[in-house]
Amino acid sequence: MQIAQSVIILLLTTECILAGKHGQRSRKKSKSKVPDKHGTDQSKQIEDMFRAHSYELSIRPKVEGQITKVGLGVMIESITDVSEKNMDFTLTLCLHETWVDPRLRFSSGGKGDSIVLPSRLIDKIWVPDIYIVGSKNSFIHKTTVNNVVLRLYSNGTIYYSVKITSTVACQMNLYNFPLDLESCSLTFQSLGYNNKEVVMEWVGGKDINDLFFDPGLVTSMPKFRLIHHQFLASNQSDSASYNAENKSSLQVMFELKRYPLSFFLQSYFPAMSMVTLAGLGMWIDPRSVPARVALGVTSVLTIATIITGMKSSLPKVSYLTAMDIYLWVCFLFVFATVLQFCALNYFMKRQQNRKARIHRTSAKTSFESWRKKICCFSDDPAALDIFFRLGYFITFLLFNVAYWVYYVILTYHDV
Questions:
Q1: Which of 125, 285, 328, 340 is most buried when burial is the number of CB atoms within 10 A of its CB?
Q2: 329-331-337 Cα angle (round to 5)
Q3: Domains, the chain, ranges and CATH?
Q4: What is the pLDDT of residues 100-125, one digit of tens each?
Q5: What is the residue-wise DSSP string for 118-162?
Q6: Which residue from 285, 310, 308 is spatially nearest to 295, judged by alpha carbons?
């Protein structure tokens, strides 16, 4: 009896196991028969290719031989800051790249059919390793999503766009500051491929309306005005690499003209005022020693403060800028009024001492009369004061004429 029960239990258990396996097989078959309603036929072909591991990310696409041609287009939204202190400029741009990858061709109903790949598939596709030469800091915008788009066409053509904000170094020539023209460049280059593997070329228009999203925002910047731009293509030698390869490089040159009005109001006009004020102080009675000394010292300290304030907003360069020359000449003019009053006060004291002495009645020789003409300032301090007043303003006027003619007219096109 017990043996019969054991046999029955064993048969029931075996039947249950077989029924379970049959149910699993039927469920798998039913799942495989249900069509996937998500995505298009084109996206399914791309995803099936990645699932089959038939696409190698590390291998660049090869079309027409061994060279991969990458078209590059730039749309600059804004140039937000051009800093002469940090020697850089910050801009926001949309970088458009295009190339052909035959491995990504797919069949479609129309010749021009295309799809926009999701971000999870962009990371699995070969993308040119283009970087901005001289970039100090860059980031990709993420409002409201990652600003990266890749559109794939049925013939394998790829359009890749990314929005970037970058701070790029710009080596400025400040000899003529603030009456200068500065030339800054935006250079794109491949990081790992030489010009025998990847060649870049400009695509699209080269007019100002093609380069800038809104030309009005760029031509009316706070400190600079864009007066010229130029597209260049060249091969740059990467001497830092182990084999000194030549790499394809694309460059946009910007020529920027500085607005000098703010600097004129902040530095030039106060310096002129101090020089004029110090010169007018020579009309004060020389016997009013405290008034003339206070005016001269105040003018010197004011010019020194202006020089210190301007140097703090500029990089530490080893040469004198145009503004340095002007401010230091103004400093010398103001300081000369203090020295003039010291000399005038000395001659006045000598004149007073001379009058207190007994005048000599002996005839003077011709040598004495000649010496008197030379030393007329010591005999008549008022003549020294009048001579210095006229020479002071005439010299300062001539200096201004020579300064502005040289820096505004003769060096207008120097960068």
A1: 340
A2: 110
A3: 51-259 (2.70.170.10), 262-353+376-410 (1.20.58.390)
A4: 998 888 877 665 578 888 777 888 88
A5: -HHHHTTS----EEETTEEEEEE--SSS--EEEEEETTSEEEEEE
A6: 285
